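Okay, is this right?
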Amino acid sequence: MITHSSAHVPVSAPATARAVAPLARRQLNLVTAHQLRAARVPSATVAGRTRPGGPWQRLLPRVYLLQTGPPDERQRALSAVLYAAGPAGGDPLGGGAAALTGGAALALIGVRGAPPTPLDVLVRAPRTVAPVPGVRPLTTARWPATITVSGIPSARPLRAAADFAARAEDPDLVRSVLANVVQAGWCHPQDLHGELRAARALARPAVRGAAAELVAGVRSIAEARARDALTATDLPAPLWNARLYTPDGAFLASPDAYWPDEGVALEIDSAEYHYARDSWHATLRRRLRLEAHGVLVVSATPSMVRDAPAEVVAALRALLGLAAHRPAPPAATARGHEQLRLPFG
């Protein structure tokens, strides 16, 4: 909603409202200085309405919010795109001059753990845009296909994930966010690997390690930590997130890690998702189905994997040793699981 001021301005408030209303409707109540000039709103009017206590706000250089209340996350994200697009020509919502990327773009589509700030924005080369607090423009000649998410021009999740990984500093956050992007079905590990290579992000050890985990089938940071712990032992390597089926072809379960020769599974269950009674019952029923078909299950929480990995490994070692002497193999078959083979140099 566009508010009005009782103070004198060079153009009447109703006339100003009519001039900017189409832009405000399309752009989440945001306009740029260039658009205001094109709409023939005098600079004196802009100055009057953005004075302290006035009905408009200057969010970023040459970007105004036409309301008195604070901006929401969508408005902040779009303001960064409008700032980066500048008066480059064309529609700033078209995704041809600037597009949201990185963690902010991933957060916009609901990727768990993706940080909504800082606001990384791609800028089409050869233009360059100065960074401002909270906004990091990134000039690129490798312009991606873009999509519109909640009214905001954005890079597709695959590119946004690669741009995030190329700039994020926290290795655990890189691991977690990339795993969540793949787990949510936004891209395939092989495609993500190719995008990371194109972005030259695989030169970073944390990114290279996260990509290797995803190719191996790992889909969460807890699973990645479990894989680290297992790699340091002499235990056989499991299949990660394999799909298990009963002898008659019915889907049984998809444990986090599974040793098909021994019929042993590792289930990492977070308490965060089991406070609800139905969720907890579903977890117990899945475990009962596995055990009913001869699968031996080690259960752990993410905090156990993080803080006491030796105890988890010891439990797995005991069950793997026990499984070697069982008279009959488990009545479960792992299929539909393929370890991708990719170079990681």
